[in-house]
Amino acid sequence: MTRRIIQTDQAPAAIGPYSQAVQVGDLAFISGQIPLDPASMALVEGDISVQTRQVFDNLRHVCVATGGDLASICKLTIFLTDLGHFATVNDIMAETFAEPYPARAAVGVRELPKGAMVEVEAILSLAEDA
């Protein structure tokens, strides 16, 4: 199968040797998004709410670049440096996504790139009947 590399300037550029997203067939695999401002490439200032909203905004822009949207997401993996923030992230996810919600995992990690508190990666389906 052919791989299509997805790139948009509406989301932060890759900060390493990876692509923002890769589409294979009807699936797109979106690399982990951290709360970087796409224009400045700086970590947004603020608490977990501010960072989470920026992450979901970055994720939305990459979804759109694939030809999908947040509703196209089948699976999310959320990485948190403090699982005490889980309830806040959960509330923001409920504001951001509509039912039926994607499958999800939340993982506690020691640290994330650039000192971020949250990172989210996604798999989305671009199948017309999904």
From TrEMBL:
Q: Which SUPFAM superfamilies match?
A: YjgF-like
Name the domain of life: Bacteria
Q: Name one Pfam family in it.
A: Ribonuc_L-PSP
Q: Which family does it belong to?
A: Belongs to the RutC family.
Instruction: Output this protein's name.
Output: RidA family protein
Organism encoding this protein: Spiribacter roseus
